[in-house]
Structure formats: C-alpha cells, structure tokens
C-alpha cells in the first residue's frame, strides 16, 4: 500500500467556524510524520479525522485504503494505536494492575481485563516490554513506575494489537528531560514493528532521527509539508509560531531558539 493516509481538499467546520481549511496531505509507506503547531492550530482535529471520530465537512479522506463514507470505522480503528498524556486520566483504573496486565489490555482496548487471555497474549506482552527496554519492570504494579516508564508501558499497550498507524499525541508532556529521552529512545523499536508514526508535539527538539516528514499547521491551514529538513526552517517555523525563530541541527535533531527583540531605553 503506497498511501497510508490521504487528505484531499479536507475542511472541517464547527459551529460555523473553519477549524481545518483545504488540507491536502499524504502519508506514504515507510514515512513517519511529526505534526507541529501552536494550540488551536488544528492538530487534534486532524487526528480526530484520521481516527474517524470527526467527519470532514468537505473533501475526501482515505486511511489504510479505507475511503471514509464507505468503510467500517470501528474495524479501522483497531488498526490505529493511540497514546496520549491525556490517557493518564484513566490511571486510577490501572494503578493496581501489573505492567503485563496493562499491556495485555491493549488487545481488548479496555482498561482492565474482562476477556480470556491466552498464553500467546502473555508472551506477546513480554516480547513488547523487552523490545521497549522495559523487561526490568516485569511484575511491578503500574503505580510503582516513573512517569517515563508509564508512558512507555502505554506505548507497549498500544502496540499489543499490531497497529499499522501509531499516534503519539504529545507523549512527553509533563516529563523531565531524562524521562523524555527515555520515551524518545524507543522510537526505533516502534518503527521496527512496521508501524507508521504520527508524532504530535509543540517542541521540535523531540523530533528524533526516526521522523522523516513534518506537517506544519497554523490556524487550521498547512504552512509547510514534506521532508523534515525542508520544512523545519526558521522561515517556516516563524510563520507557524507567529514569532521570529531560528533553527539549528545537532545529531540529526532540530533545536529552536527565539530571536530576541532588542529594546532601547533612550
């Protein structure tokens, strides 16, 4: 399948207001995208259309070969994994679950296990924990983990159903630098699972070498879209972030600095 996601002239309106306007965007096989923009730029709305929770007002959407309006959305959603810091609102339901139980629950898209789990399911959970460098926490309950460990466990949970697309929606929000790098450090392991990543963030320094392309949004419109080295320029980011910025690269990761305005006291 060459096209994983296709948006053609997609707009979405809410209460008479344009939230997304004329979005033309394609994700192709073996591409991994970061989606950048300020709050209110349309990132969440775009994700909700990808997952079929919002229907575009105009335009055509195809995800994993499924044209919206002609497909079974619940079945499609089983092929899309989703991890967000907002999932921690369910953390009380997970607190006393073991790490393995949390991961296995991803097969059933539930918080808690209410269906029969096979030996193969437990083996798969152990394999995912090992792949994401978490085998050292086997047997621990979720409430005993650090924030970085919890996020990685939730990523393993999302991978339990072998998704073809994995959405990481600001997964590093609220993490310290060490925990953030722990989460970013598993990116290579994720793409080896043949997932296509959609990584949503405000912070360009989180765009690791695994990310190949960037979609840059401002006020519901595309500022730039394409290979990350072409999109992540001072000019494009200044337009998207509504302030003058510079970009420099270190070890294949971009870093942003704000151009300070100089004021005279005379």
From TrEMBL:
InterPro entries registered for this protein in UniProt: AAA+_ATPase, ABC_transporter-like_ATP-bd, ABC_transporter-like_CS, ABC_transpr_CbiO/EcfA_su, P-loop_NTPase
Example GO CC term: the record gives:
plasma membrane
The protein's UniProt keywords, in alphabetical order, are: ATP-binding, Nucleotide-binding, Transport
- Would you say which domain of life the source belongs to? Bacteria
* Subcellular location as annotated: Cell membrane
Task: Kindly give the Pfam families that the UniProt entry links to this protein.
Answer: ABC_tran
Molecular function GO terms recorded:
ATP binding; ATP hydrolysis activity; transmembrane transporter activity
- What CDD domains is this protein classified in? ABC_cobalt_CbiO_domain1
* Residues annotated as domain ABC transporter: 5-244
Query: Membrane topology per the record?
Result: Peripheral membrane protein
Tell me what this protein is called: Iron complex transport system ATP-binding protein
Q: Which organism is it from?
A: Fictibacillus solisalsi
